[in-house]
Amino acid sequence: MESDFPILIAEDNPVSRKLLEKTLKKAGYEVVPAKNGREALELFGQRFFPIVLTDWMMPEMTGPELCRALRAQSGNGYVFMILLTAKDSKEDIVAGLEAGADDYLTKPFNRAELMARLKTGTRILELERSLKKATEEIRVLSIKDTLTGCYNRGFLTEHLPKEIKRARRYGHDLSVLLCDIDHFKKVNDTYGHQAGDAVLKTFAKILMDSIRNGVDWVSRYGGEEFLVVLPETPFQGAVLVAERLRTNVAEAVMDTPEGALHITASFGVTGFSSDTPEPRVSPDAMVKMADDKLYQAKNEGRNTVRSQPL
């Protein structure tokens, strides 16, 4: 089975390079050879390699020089580097390690020793990968609502001001819509909180599936209220988006532990353009205007959209 840690070899001696390549491929590694340190650095710039085997003495760029160069630019993850060298004095070994190498192997190399060093490197890289995954999971948990999977109130508080600042800087439109599930308390009281949670999850999914992926975003504002942020969307366009979302919700079947339910939602929409006076534009002003329009939609029969620009 091929390892998922490809290896970049930097070796100017064609016989040694071919022997290394053959040995590593036989052990299941993907191998990319380079004739010298300079070529290896260029290849690394085109593709990330988590493991690098480099000869010490090479033309154009030595092994230690390559190690230093890679340490200075490897932003995609940790690179485990092994120096292959005929030098075996303590001073040379220390110099190689100080240049950024993780390990060294004397030439001519012993296959079993090479495999053991690579196994050590693989363990380090697997540990780094698991730590990155755990860190990413923690980051996602810190910004996502655990029930619905959309962004939480903390993310909204941090990122709505950034969206406004970006829109003002580049003269773009920005709109938001605040929506609320109609008669949600009745759902909880009649069918129970498990059914209510199922409705919330389905409602959030409809919102997220109905907007532009990677551009627009949804945040749970509180309870059954959700704020949808629409960058580079003019006010009238946001009204059309809200109408589409309202229709999608009204036509959806909500599967719950108590059976299928139908719900509706009300929407309040606001937004600004490059012509909107600066004093009017702020996160609080946008949320308040959207909330006022949502309140109006509720008072005027629900399952409707009410809107007003800033």
How would you briefly describe this protein structure?
This protein is α/β, with parallel strands linked by helices and 310 residues long.
Features:
single chain; 310 residues; alpha/beta; Rossmann fold; Alpha-Beta Plaits; 5-stranded parallel β-sheet; 10 helices
Kindly estimate the percentage of residues that lie in beta strands according to DSSP. Answer: 15-25%
Which spans of ≥5 residues are poorly predicted at pLDDT below 50?
none
Please, how many helices?
10
Secondary structure: number of strands: 12
Q: Which quaternary structure do these chains form?
A: single chain
Distance between the termini: 61 Å
When the domains are counted, the total is: 2
The main sheet comes to: 5 strands, parallel
Overall mean pLDDT stands at: 92
**Any idea of the CATH topology of the largest domain?**
Alpha-Beta Plaits
**Structural class label:** alpha/beta
Shape: elongated
Task: Explain this structure.
With 310 residues, the chain is α/β, with parallel strands linked by helices. The chain folds into 2 domains: 7-139, Response regulator (Rossmann fold), CATH 3.40.50; 153-307, 2-Layer Sandwich (Alpha-Beta Plaits). It contains 10 helices and 12 strands. It has helices at 14-26, 37-46, 63-73, 90-98, 111-143, 153-170, 184-191, 193-209, 235-251, 283-299; strands spanning 7-10, 31-34, 51-55, 80-85, 103-106, 174-181, 217-222, 225-231, 254-256, 259-261, 265-272, 305-307. It has a 5-stranded parallel beta sheet, with helices on both faces. Strands 7-8-6-11-12 form a 5-stranded mixed beta sheet, sandwiched between helices. Helix 10 links the parallel strand 11 and strand 12. Helix 2 packs parallel to helix 3 (63-73) and helix 7 (184-191) packs across helix 8. It starts with 6 loop residues before the first strand and ends with a strand. The model has no long low-confidence stretch (mean pLDDT 92).
